[in-house]
């Protein structure tokens, strides 16, 4: 037989009780939940956008401050570079100076008694050489880039010239001694009381007063000494540094005035 429920529908309980309000409340509740989730997502997104905008503003402000600081320090960087260039130029000039006083003092100590000089020319470079009368540096002096001595004089025979060359090599800094000429007088030209008497006149005059006296011309090189800076190179360096100095001073004054404003 088929069971029949005799309880009125409004009094039934459990799964057999009918819906009193229908599905509308559940639909409304689901919509509210979805709306709440959407609002939460919107608020979070808005907060993230605001934070990113604040970060962008902060980064732009820091970048602008860094650029302004770099512009203020640019003048000091240029001044530092200019100072370094001038220090290097001064150091080069100082290193290129040669101690001629020491060389002359040592030469006075090693000069043999049978040798006398008629002319001596000391020059730091070939361009500066050959200024004195009687200087006979010639091509040998031109082949020496650094300091050198050009000497003319006389000695007792070729042995005296050779001994003088050996003595010159004892001077500190001498790297080589080149003898350009060394000759005895021709027969009958070196008599006593001749035109060359007096031990060699001014301007490299003949000092051969005897037939056994040899007149020489030699060049003493100091190859290890620093090559001096030429005047043209120094002038070019100063001319190149002058515009940089003016630009550095102008930028420095502009920066100072802008900071004061």
Write the layout of secondary structure elements.
Layout (H helix, E strand, L loop, with lengths): L23 H73 L3 H11 L4 E9 L14 H5 L5 E9 H12 L7 E8 L29 E9 L9 H30 L1
Antiparallel strand pairs: 1-2, 2-4, 3-4
Helix pairs in contact: 1-5
Output the radius of gyration.
51 Å
* Shape verdict: rod-shaped
Q: Indicate the percent of residues in helices.
A: 40-55%
The DSSP helix count reads: 5
How large is the share of residues in beta strands?
A: 5-15%
Mean pLDDT: 75
Distance between the termini: 108 Å
Which spans of ≥5 residues are poorly predicted at pLDDT below 50?
A: 131-137, 187-204, 254-261
Alpha-beta classification = alpha+beta
Order of helices and strands: HHEHEHEEH
Major sheet description: 4 strands, antiparallel
Extended strand count: 4
Strand line-up of the largest beta sheet: 1-2-4-3
Give an account of the 3D structure:
Helix content is 50%, strand content 13%. The protein has 5 helices and 4 strands, in the order H-H-E-H-E-H-E-E-H. It is rod-shaped, with a radius of gyration of 51 Å. A 4-stranded antiparallel β-sheet has the order 1-2-4-3. By secondary structure, the protein is α+β, with helices and mostly antiparallel strands. The chain starts with 23 loop residues before the first helix and ends with a helix. Helix 1 runs antiparallel to helix 5 (231-260).
């Amino acid at each position: 037989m088929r069971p029949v429920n005799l309880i009125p529908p409004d009094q039934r309980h459990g799964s057999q009780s009918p819906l009193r309000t229908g599905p509308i409340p559940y639909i409304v509740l689901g919509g509210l939940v979805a709306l709440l989730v959407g609002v939460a997502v919107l608020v979070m997104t808005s907060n993230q956008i605001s934070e990113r905008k604040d970060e962008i503003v902060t980064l732009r402000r820091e970048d602008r401050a860094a650029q302004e600081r770099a512009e203020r320090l640019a003048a000091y960087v240029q001044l530092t570079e200019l100072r370094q260039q001038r220090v290097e130029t001064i150091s080069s000039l100082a290193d290129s100076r040669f101690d001629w006083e020491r060389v002359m003092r040592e030469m006075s100590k090693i000069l043999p008694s049978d040798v006398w000089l008629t002319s001596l020319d000391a020059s730091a470079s070939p361009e500066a050489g050959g200024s004195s009368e009687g200087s006979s540096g010639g091509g040998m002096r031109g082949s020496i880039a650094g300091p050198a001595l050009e000497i003319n004089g006389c000695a007792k025979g070729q042995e005296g010239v050779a001994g003088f060359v050996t003595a010159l090599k004892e001077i500190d800094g001498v790297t080589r001694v080149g003898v350009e000429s060394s000759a005895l007088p021709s027969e009958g030209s070196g008599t006593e009381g001749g035109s060359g008497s007096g031990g060699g006149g001014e301007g490299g005059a003949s000092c051969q007063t005897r037939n056994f006296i040899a007149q020489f011309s030699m060049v003493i090189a100091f190859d290890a000494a620093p090559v001096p800076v030429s005047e043209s190179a120094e002038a070019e360096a100063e001319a190149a540094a002058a515009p940089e100095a003016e630009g550095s001073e102008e930028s420095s004054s502009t920066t100072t005035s802008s900071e004061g404003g």
